[in-house]
Write the structure tokens for this entry.
Amino acid sequence: MANWIKTLKVADVPEGQARVFDANGTKIAICHAEGSFYAIDDLCTHDGGPLGEGEMEGLFIQCPRHYAKFDVRTGKAVTLPAVGYVATYPVQVEGDYVLVDIGSPTHATKGKVQMTT
């Protein structure tokens, strides 16, 4: 069931960076990568590290604790010590804001931005 919430202003998430938003108790990293926005759980599968505090490298975010990398499009861990997936969420931009559908977490590639007018 869709549950779109307004998160951050587009201008608050510079290209190549992530910012964390608390969505009703769930921390979500809003990532701006290669011109698109993605939403991914702010939780490393290795030890619960804060992904949103990590460095972005293209379409990947690196956990600041042990440097595991995750694909922001799919949530898939692509380097050890992390394994598996973290949830991603559908994203759209409306006006100046990034909206995230927190009711539809997925491990598919639905985290990519959908522009609306």
About this structure: Confidence is low (pLDDT under 50) at residues 108-117.
